Fold this protein.
Amino acid sequence: MASYSTSEIRGGMKVMIDNDPCAIVDNEFVKPGKGQAFNRIKYRNLKSGRVVERTYKSGDSIEAADVTDIEAQYLYNDGSHWHFMCGDTFEQYQMDEAQVSDSKLWLKEQDKCVLTLWNGSPLGVAPQNFVILKITETDPGVRGDTSGGGGKPAKLETGAVVRVPLFVQQGELIKVDTRDGSYVARVKE
Amino acid sequence: MSWKPSASFKTLHTRAKISAQVRDFFSKRNVLEVQTPLLSSTSVTDPYIQSIPAIFQRTGSQVQETLYLQTSPEYAMKRLLAAGSGPIFQICKAFRQGEVGTFHQPEFTMLEWYRPDFNHHDLMNEMDDLLQLVLNKGKAERLSYAAAFVNTVGINPHFASLEELSFCAKKNGIIVNSTITDRDAWLDLILTHCIEPHFANNHPVFLYDFPISQAALAKIRNEDPPVASRFEVYYKGIELANGFHELQDSNEQRRRFENNLHQRNKLDLSPIPIDEHFPAALSHGLPDCSGVALGLDRLLMLILSAENIREVVSFGF
């Protein structure tokens, strides 16, 4: 695998640090006027999701990681694993609960998503930024309220709970922003 | 990519005002403004400062000569001092190969000045006067290099072993993924990662009396332990200036140059021809003096609370 010098490392690059695949968050050049140069590299460990920092001597190199994002379709959950299929190759992938993490709250069967693969194996999944899901449980709203001020919790078909305006009813479809779990709009069937 | 300036006009006005204030400050103190070459046939031998080469060819000639953009006007200004100039200052561009970052540009503006009959503490007094004028943040705090280490991380930088230094970095949450086998690299790392962030934020800090292994062009005082008469200036944890009570001994200067070249060789860096004019000027006699270089772009960043050095130069690299 190729490697990058500390001077080439940019945000978003995928590299191997301490044997784990990582995504670079930030690379800061630190050099005292008369002294030695370092790079303080901040990155997200793609296995644990944690953001950490390491210091390198400037000029050292870091191995690139074979990490790619592919478009896939979420198929089903068999109780312990979540199954996906790549739309181009029809290859299937499975992930356990820890790997699927919070994304499971937004995954509806047949929906598109993005799988992150490391050496061909899935590391994680990202739902689409906006998904349309059915409300399975919410209190009846106060009649006449159309403004959305206040709101109430609503449970969705995937298990996620989001705050919705009072006029939104059980059984309706809503559009949700998966990046912050916020209600966007009501959707007609 | 944008053709537009990376600095605002408000910033450029402040830059012009600061330059005028600096010139007025030195003019009132009878310090002469000088200019020295930015392009020279030699450059510094420091293993951790790289020069940008430039190819010179006389019109009509096939002979190519490697010249260097100067990393600081230090040698030329000391030749003026040895020739009897008296106190001098200069505002000029300086160039450093490879240095780009939040606080680094390969081409930057330096204010450098020299004072005959000043030791490094006298020069710190004058630096303090200048900073009170342009920064308006009150008197600077003075801290020896040793005290800064002892107070912040609890080790003595003059005596700590490689193992103690590496353990100290680790204990302070710094994980290093490179092999570091020399003390000065560990000291630089601990200073930049663990100590500078703890310097006072509301006034400048002067760090003085460096380890002799980091003397550069400073005199060494044979005290217990021996220390280099060198100082650095910080404000809000940002390194602003570096000064020396200048080494006058030409033999000692040559030994340091040769030691630098030896280190460069070990680091696989290209050799740099020693600037023979400089030891020759020292042999003739450099007056007892102190000198300091201050990064004007960084000073401007601090005055304007800029996040990146590009914001204070008209067109950032």
Observations:
- Chain B has one domain: 9-140+203-312.
- Chain B is about 35% helix and 20% strand.
- The longest helix of chain B spans residues 9-28.
- The mean pLDDT of chain B is 96.
